[in-house]
Amino acid sequence: MAGPPAAVAAVRVAVRAVLRDLPNGSLVLVACSGGPDSTALAAATAFEAPRAGLRAGLVTIDHGLQDGSAERAADVVAWGAELGFEPCEAVRVEVGARGGPEAAARYARYAGLDAAAARHGAAAVLLGHTANDQAETVLLGLARGSGARSAAGMAPARGVYRRPLLELPRATTHAACADEALPIWHDPHNVDPGYTRSRVRAVLPALEEAAGGGLMAGLARSAALLRADADLLDDLAAELLVRVTVPDPAVPDGDFLAARRHRTLDTRTLADAHPALRGRVLRRWAIEQGAPAGTLAWTHVDALDALVTRWRGQGAVHLPEGIEVVRANGILVARHVARRFVPR
């Protein structure tokens, strides 16, 4: 008896690999937008999860950014229900202005997925990112100049999230959808030149051709190597961050979240650290204070580093989301500045 087409088989094998360690009877959720990548992922999960003794659910996020988004989300839910996903639901999220439109949508999307995973007790949430997405992420990280972590791309697994398709090209997921005649929707935002990732996506084929092939695979290998290095350096930086923290006496003992938000840093101790660790400490600290990771560039971290190692009495460093960082008596302090309303 003939097996499934090659593309369908490749997606199923990738999904099967990330389900192996999940406890029998546990729930795995698929984040499905209705696009080709996540639709191929959902179809493969519907096939593989029962064979692995797992329950499969589906969540589609409605960002409400386009006309008809609620109807498209309902169509995805209806299709998922036909495949037997339970639970199978659409989650409407509110997209704010955190870090620009792309970062804001991403932040809202993951908040919705986090809530769904917690609500249903999911053991894992599967995401449909492909090798193309990984290549785009690495190129964007390199362009931002934010260091190895930013250029390390997306992790195959982090927390509850897993990315089974990260080593498969987008062409494979598109072929799998065609082979199974799956209903797919193409998000116009993916080709909108107003979005940075869309512009990178448009030039990636030309870069692949100019490199003589193998560009995406090379970027993926580089990302994996950088991720291993970054993991080690991040662990060391976390230890250093604890050492350079100046406790805030106003924060009650045991309130760890408040302690992180109000953390201040001793510049004298931090100045003696290796630059590779010092930069990571400053970046992590800036994110803790509320600066979105996707909007922090090398220029921000370098300006913070100047407050530590090149102090000449300069003024505040301005970070995304209205955060100002000042140095006072050898201590770095972050404060939130109310944004002024500018009438149009």
Please provide a written account of the structure.
Residues 28-202 form the tRNA(Ile)-lysidine/2-thiocytidine synthase N-terminal domain. It catalyses: cytidine(34) in tRNA(Ile2) + L-lysine + ATP = lysidine(34) in tRNA(Ile2) + AMP + diphosphate + H(+). It is found in: Cytoplasm. With 344 residues, the chain is of the alpha/beta class. It has 2 domains: 6-223, 3-Layer(aba) Sandwich (Rossmann fold), CATH 3.40.50.620; 247-336, Uridine Diphospho-n-acetylenolpyruvylglucosamine Reductase, domain 3 (2-Layer Sandwich). Helix content is 51%, strand content 13%. It has helices spanning 6-19, 36-51, 69-83, 101-120, 131-144, 148-151, 170-180, 196-210, 215-244, 256-261, 267-271, 275-288, 298-309; strands at 27-31, 55-62, 88-92, 124-126, 157-158, 161-162, 245-246, 264-266, 317-319, 323-328, 331-336. The strands form 2 sheets. It has a 6-stranded mixed beta sheet with strand order 3-2-1-4-6-5, with helices on both faces. Helix 1 packs across helix 2 (36-51) and helix 5 (131-144) crosses helix 8 (196-210).
Summed up, what is this model?
It is found in: Cytoplasm. By secondary structure, the protein is of the alpha/beta class. It is built from 13 helices and 11 strands.
Secondary structure elements and pairings:
Blueprint lengths: L5 H14 L7 E5 L4 H16 L3 E8 L6 H15 L4 E5 L8 H20 L3 E3 L4 H14 L3 H4 L5 E2 L2 E2 L7 H11 L15 H15 L4 H30 E2 L9 H6 L2 E3 H5 L3 H14 L9 H12 L7 E3 L3 E6 L2 E6 L8
Parallel strand pairs: 1-2, 1-4, 2-3, 4-6
Antiparallel strand pairs: 5-6, 7-8, 8-11, 9-10, 10-11
Family: Belongs to the tRNA(Ile)-lysidine synthase family.
Keywords: ATP-binding, Cytoplasm, Ligase, Nucleotide-binding, tRNA processing
Pfam families: ATP_bind_3, TilS
